[in-house]
Amino acid sequence: MLLSKLFLEGLKQPGYALLDQIVVTLSNFLTFVILARYLEVDDLGLYTLLFTISVVMLGIHNALIAEPIRVKGVAYKKQRCKSYISCQLAMHLILTVFLSFVTLLLTYFYNFDSTLILSYLFFVVFVLANQFTRSVYIALFDIKRLFYIDLTTNIIRVFIVVVVMHYSNASLNLAFVVSTISWILAVAYLFIDLNKFYFSLEYKVKESCLSITIKSWDMGKWLLLEALAYSFSIQIYVIALGYFRAAEEVAVFGVVQNLLNVTNVFIAGVGFYAMSAVRQTLNDSGVSKWFSQLKLYSLSTLIIISGLLVFVSIFGKEILLLLYGDAYSNHAYLIPLFSIAYLLACTNNFYRIFYISSDNPRIPFYARFLSLVVSLCAIYFLINNLGVIGACIGLIVTQVSWLLVYRLNHKAWFKKLNNEIYV
After folding, report:
1. d(CA 34, CA 177)
2. How far apart (Å, rounded) are the C-alpha atoms in residues 55 and 33?
3. What's the CA gap between 182 and 171, in Å, rounded?
4. Where are the strands (E) in 335-395, listed by range?
5. Residue by residue, what is the 3-state secondary structure of 162-176?
6. Quick one: DSSP state of residue 208?
7. Which runs of consecutive H residues, i.e. helices, occur in 62-113?
8. pTM (2 decimals)?
9. Could you give the C-alpha distances from 5 to 67, 141, 278, 380, in angstroms and in order?
10. What is each CA distance from 233 to 57, 299, 312, 389, in whole angstroms?
11. DSSP secondary structure code for residue 198 in this structure
12. Residue 22 burial (CB count, 10 A)
């Protein structure tokens, strides 16, 4: 029954959401594998460190712009999307300027070459732009169009990376230049398509940008606190590895993490769509159908993720040898630790959707805050004494902290929801 329901759902929008995430995840996975093949180990470690900083920037952008679009944006019909998207675009551009300045400050402390900093800065700007455009498509449930656009641009992206890295002298700076070019193409394609199909639409109900921003801020302020706590309880382990240990250990962490990131096909693919889909169900059909739909998404995803993680844990050494060669295959012992963290992350992702889609961003923040406190207390001991193994243990402890908070508040919030009406 569960699989038949999943199949029927998969024939509709979630199927395209899953296919789209397969394309995006595979593109990111192949890009990292290609770079690992051509870059020196230390350069790959620095690439992982810089990429982690960009993930922190993405988290802040997601909290203030992208996720409010995916939740609040579903209430805007197409005749009103022009004003809504235009306002969010303005907010996105303002935030991008601010985050670019923060990025410059962070890279300054590492004494990177000015050329590398410039190429990395452009990389961050266009990664943020890509996240903005994709969130608009998801909020408007135009997943099919997004899938075809992502398929085209990511094929081009991987092709460019392969050709340039193979026929040029591979370097860290070149890696970001190539990646930035591919992101520019993707963003240009997405914006042209958005302008053609959405910005040109007439809208009957005008709403001020200030009103839209206030609505986004009501949710975004909690998501921002959550994102900052998340970064300091998850990404801080990579940053600490780069500070307390050698760049080689950061590279090892990145290689194993990239392998396990294939699970993002389901965690992010289903999760991104589910956030908007279950919110619409809550608006239209009430709490009971909303919870049933969310439970279907979560259980189905957990079953698939568990199977993938078991497979990768058993054949991890062979997979690492096939993808990266002898340089990293001896670190397959880290895969089971990462697998535990990723299984917990999948569970926590749907608990988070449970709270965010029902307008309760406070609980995810409390969960992140607890893990932040735990991470700050444990990080020096874990990284300084255990290195990359300590970083993996830290990821598990973080996920357990989140799950504890989610479970403690689950029943009380669900009971409250049954006494409320959502519109």
Report:
1. 15
2. 18
3. 17
4. none
5. HHHHHHCCCCHHHHH
6. -
7. 67-72, 81-108
8. 0.69
9. 27, 20, 15, 47
10. 15, 26, 25, 16
11. I
12. 18
Per-residue pLDDT of 305-323, as tens digits, reads: 899 899 988 988 888 888 8
For residue 286, count other CB atoms closer than 10 A to its CB. Answer: 15
Between CA 302 and CA 403 the distance in angstroms is 15
Indicate left, alpha or beta for 238 from its phi (over 0: left) and psi (-120 to 50: alpha): alpha
Report how far residue 293's alpha carbon sits from residue 166's, in angstroms, rounded to the nearest whole number. Answer: 46
Phi, psi of 183 (to 5 degrees): -70, -35
CA distances (Å), 153 to each of 186, 346, 370, 412, in order? Answer: 5, 27, 39, 45
Residue with tokens 């535990």: 340
Cα–Cα distance measured from residue 259 to residue 28, given in angstroms and rounded to the nearest whole number: 11
The C-alpha angle with vertex 417 and arms to 413 and 421, in degrees rounded to 5, equals: 160
pLDDT < 70 positions in the chain: 1-15, 72-83, 110, 195-208, 219-220, 265, 269, 271-273, 276, 420-423
Q: Are 301 and 3 in contact (CB under 8 A)?
A: no
Q: Which of 127, 118, 113, 119 is nearest to 52 (CA)?
A: 127
DSSP state of 246: -
Structure tokens at 162: 């392969």
Distance CA 45, CA 360 (A): 37
CA distances from 232 to 136, 227, 308, 356 (A): 28, 9, 28, 20
Match 């609040």 to its residue by tokens: 72
- The vertex-85 CA angle with 79 and 91, nearest 5°, equals 155
Query: What Å distances lie between residue 131 and 16, 124, 146, 147, CA to CA?
Result: 17, 11, 12, 14
